[in-house]
Every structure is written in structure tokens, then in C-alpha cells.
Write a structure and sequence with these properties.
Distance between the termini: 15 Å
Number of helices: 6
Structural class: alpha+beta
Strand content: 15-25%
Largest sheet: 4 strands, antiparallel
Length: 210
């Protein structure tokens, strides 16, 4: 990442084949949750104590989730990563405890081990171009249509139905807190399932980086 903890220029470690040891039901698709860290840190006292907030990250990947998650998705397999990979993953997911918890909660529903799973996240993050409008130093208001257009321009293969935006309200103002992008199991974009929809108004605020 650069000085504002963005993920432009991430070193991609490559996608390896999925583990044949996986015995669960294959996922029909995945949803990547990307947090706008300044807003999340300001709106949540719990989040504000985490490394992503303390070190001033602009974006943070909360996880790559199977479309359907249930109790059987929990996994007791190791979440440990090789040192070099852990350093690369920390550039988009800086909180190790959060990464371990994520794997423990969904590892049983993905056809790969932890190393392959986090490698996949890095690959997806590297290929998704994020507009620099999301990392301004100052808080400002923007139209939902404008941000949608910026993503479409930077990612011509990203359908409008494959990306959705989540907002939270504070003092009668709505702030963009999360972006959700949907994928097929092979990594191509796909329309998000019905339960993944935008909840933002026509105009909202983007919290300034700190």
C-alpha cells in the first residue's frame, strides 16, 4: 500500500489450485466486503481500537464470504500463513486476530485451505480498481450515481449488479461504510444475490482519511 494505506500496487502472490481435501458443498459464489476504514472507525467504538484504525488505513477487506453461510462453515483448521504471505495480506487485512476469526467462521465452506483463501483475496483486491475518490483527506458529500460510474469506468468488466454499497447514518447524515463485490467461484464477477443490495441514499458522505 502507499502512504495512505491504499492497496494500489499490491504484490500478487498468485492463485494456486483449490484443495482436493475439501469435502463441503462447493460455494455458488462469493461476496467480498471492503470497508471504508475512516467511516467504520468513527462510527464504531469497537472498530476504532483495531490496527486498521490506529494506523490510518483507508480501506480494509473484512472478508470474502460464501453466498450462503451457516454453522457448518466453522473450521478448526490452521489459519497460520507463511511469513511473506502474512505481510502481503496485512496490507489489506491488517488485524491478524480478525483474519483468524474470519477463517474460523467460514473455512469449512470454501474449497481451499487458509493460505489459498487469503491468496484469493489478494488476487481479487489487486484486480479491483478502486477510485481515489474514496481516500480524500477531507469529508465530502457525493452522489451514489457518481461513485457507481467511477467504479464502472475503472472496471469495465464489473457489472452494476455485481457491486453494492452500504451506508450508516450518524446525526442525520449517511456515510459510506462498505462496498460489496460479488464473484463466481472462478473469480469472474457476477450479479449479487437478492440479499446483497445497496442501502445508501442518492447522496451520502465519504469520511475523510486521517
Amino acid at each position: 500500500m502507499n502512504a495512505v494505506k491504499y492497496w494500489s500496487g499490491i504484490a500478487v502472490m498468485g492463485l494456486y489450485g483449490w484443495s482436493h481435501a475439501y469435502a463441503g458443498t462447493p460455494a455458488t459464489g462469493y461476496v467480498m466486503h471492503i470497508q471504508l476504514t475512516p467511516a467504520m472507525c468513527d462510527l464504531s467504538a469497537t472498530e476504532s481500537k483495531k490496527r486498521k484504525c490506529l494506523e490510518g488505513y483507508s480501506l480494509n477487506i473484512a472478508g470474502l464470504y460464501p453466498e450462503k453461510i451457516s454453522a457448518h462453515c466453522q473450521s478448526s483448521s490452521s489459519a497460520n500463513l507463511p511469513l511473506l504471505q502474512a505481510k502481503v495480506v496485512a496490507r489489506v487485512m491488517p488485524d491478524e486476530a480478525a483474519r483468524v476469526h474470519l477463517w474460523r467462521s467460514i473455512g469449512g465452506c470454501v474449497p481451499m485451505n487458509a493460505s489459498q483463501y487469503f491468496r484469493t483475496i489478494i488476487n481479487y483486491a489487486d484486480h479491483l480498481k478502486v477510485p481515489n475518490d474514496l481516500s480524500h483527506a477531507e469529508t465530502y458529500q457525493v452522489s451514489a450515481a457518481y461513485i457507481q460510474q467511477r467504479f464502472s469506468k475503472l472496471n469495465p468488466r464489473l457489472p452494476a449488479k455485481a457491486i453494492h454499497f452500504q451506508c450508516q447514518q450518524q446525526r442525520k447524515s449517511s456515510y459510506l461504510t462498505e462496498i460489496r463485490v460479488c464473484y463466481k467461484p472462478n473469480g469472474q464477477y457476477k450479479a449479487c444475490p437478492a440479499d446483497v443490495q445497496s442501502n445508501c441514499p442518492s447522496h451520502y458522505y465519504i469520511k475523510g482519511a486521517y
